[in-house]
Amino acid sequence: MVEIVAYAKERLDLLLTCDVNSHHLVWSSTNINPKEESLFNFVMSAELHILNRGTEPTFLDFRKQEILNITLCTGGVVDLVEGWRVSSELSGSDHRQVRFALEQIQKEEKLGRNPRKTN
C-alpha cells in the first residue's frame, strides 16, 4: 500500500475502496486500538482523504455491526466523488456495498490529423 500511494502521488490520482477490517473513531467505528491507530497514521502521513460519510455500518452479521470499509483518495479526486453512501441493497456478503458517483471530467479535444496515419 505504501508503494502504491507513493507511485500514485508522483504520477496519477488514486481512489481506493478498502475492506480494512480496522476500527477507528475517525470513520465512525465504535472503538480503536493500536493496529487501527497505525492505519490512521499512514492515511494522514500519505495525505489521503477519507471519503466515508455518516455512521451506517459497512459490515453486518448476527453478532455485530461495524464500519470496516473505508474509501480513500488523493487530493485530485476528492472533489470529483459525489454521493458517497452505504447501500441498503443485499450484497450476498456480510459486507454492504459502498456506492458513489464520479463527476464527469470534460477533456478538451484537440482536433488534427496525423499524416503518418493517413491511408
Overview of the molecule:
The protein has helices spanning 2-11, 34-45; strands spanning 15-19, 49-50, 59-60, 65-66, 69-73, 81-86, 98-102. It has a single domain (2-105), classed as Deoxyribonuclease I, Chain A, CATH 3.60.10.10. It contains two helices and seven strands; from the N terminus they run αβαββββββ. The chain has 119 residues and is an alpha+beta fold. The model has no long low-confidence stretch (mean pLDDT 83). The strands form three sheets. Strands 1-5-2 form a three-stranded antiparallel beta sheet, with no helix packed on it. It has a two-stranded antiparallel sheet with strand order 3-4.
Compute the number of helices.
2
CATH architecture name:
4-Layer Sandwich
Strand fraction: 15-25%
- Count of discrete domains: 1
Average pLDDT for all residues: 83
Q: In terms of per-residue confidence, which ranges show pLDDT below 50 for 5 or more consecutive residues?
A: none
Strand order of the largest sheet: 1-5-2
Termini Cα gap: 46 Å
The CATH class: Alpha Beta
Helix content: 10-25%
**Helix/strand/pairing class, anyone?**
alpha+beta
Shape: elongated
Query: Considering the protein shown, what is the CATH homologous superfamily?
Result: Endonuclease/exonuclease/phosphatase
* Alpha carbon gyration radius: 19 Å
Largest sheet: 3 strands, antiparallel
Helix and strand pattern: HEHEEEEEE
GO molecular function: RNA-directed DNA polymerase activity
Keywords: Nucleotidyltransferase, RNA-directed DNA polymerase, Transferase
Domain Endonuclease/exonuclease/phosphatase: 11-98
Protein name: Reverse transcriptase
